[in-house]
Structure formats: C-alpha cells, structure tokens
Amino acid sequence: MKRVFDRLRRFGTKHKRALSVSTASAVSMGVLSGALLYPGFATAEVDLNDGGVWVTNRNTGMVGHLNYQSRLLDGGYAANSDSFDIIQDRATVFNINSDQSKISPVDVANVVRGTEVQLPGSAAVAMAMGGTTAAVTDRAGGAVWITTVQNLAAFSDQETEPVVTGSSGVVAAVSSNNRVLVADPSAATVSTYVVASDGTFEEPTVVEAEALGTFGDAQVAAVGDQAVVFDG
Prior knowledge:
The N and C termini lie far apart (58 Å). By secondary structure, the chain is mainly beta. The chain contains 2 helices and 18 strands.
C-alpha cells in the first residue's frame, strides 16, 4: 500500500510541474496580445447573408451568382478582364480587375457590374472589407489607404491620404467591427486602426512583432478584432 501511495505522490508532483509549465506558457503567450505570428495557411469563412454565393469562371471570363438553396446559378455577368476576382462582405460585393488595378461595385439584386474605378499602384493592389470600412493596399508601393465601403466606388488616392507609405510588402485586413489591421514587415509592427462609420479614425495602436521582419511574403487576417499574421 505504501508503494501505491508513493507512486501516486510522484504522479501528482509530475503533473503539478506540467501544470506550472503550461500556466507559464499561457502567461507568456498572453503578453503578445496585439498580434499572433503564425507561418501557416490562409483560410476564409464567408458570411453571405443574401442566400447565395458568388463564383468565378476564368475560362469563360464570367462571374455568377449561385442560389445556394436551389443549387442553381440565377444570374451572371462578364468580368471584362483576364484576371479578376470577387470581394464580398455580406451583401456588399465588388468585382476586382487585377489586370488594370480597377474595382467596380456589383448590383446584387440585378447581378450587374457597375462602373470601374481606378485603384493606385500596380497589380499588387489588394482590398479588404469589414463592417462599413474598406482598406486599399498597394503592396509594391508600400501604401495603405482607409476609406468607407460606401465611398469605395468613388475612391481616389489623390483625395485620400494613406496611413502607411514606403513600406514594401505591407498588408492589411479589416474586421467586422471596423478595425483595420496593418502588418508592416519593414517596421516589424502590427497597427490597429479603429474606424468610425464616417471613415474617421484616431492614432493606431501599434504592437512590435520582431518575427514579422523575417517574413518573405506576409499575409494578415482578422480573427475577431485580432490580427493573425503568417508567412505565405
């Protein structure tokens, strides 16, 4: 019986030590609360809220609207570009013309592509939307602009001041709560801008992320209001 208790005592001691290490690890991870750096893979989960899914067919140069309930395409339009994509946040949809760095709003009800708007920079331009906020990123030029989804169809880099300039490889994401999350490998920082419904914002919260400076192809995603940065 004594041997049994001795074994139980040693088992408990080992697990106490393991618990202490786990607790310390959790505390250490909690210190880096502004950003998570993870060299993994990008995933996307889309909340459409319109009963359908937008799909692209680059072989035919078409964009279609899939009614998910009926499993049928109920409309479509010509993308007018060899390289194109769709960006969507709920019922707000934009067509991206990557060949010419242009975007156009999509009339969801009538499944019609609107007038194209020229974006700054080159084909490296990327867009992100969330809530009422949009971010336009020129990765090659190293610039990020913040605007509203409502004003995106008339966006002009001549009238909107960038929040970041001269940071090649910079990336941005937008949370559903109107937080613009900017990961800047050049500065090794992740900045969070809290954007009001009218597009105004205060100075960002900046978190240093030393490992970000080693990323060759940084990507950023918004998980809630948290920035998750990984090396693509």
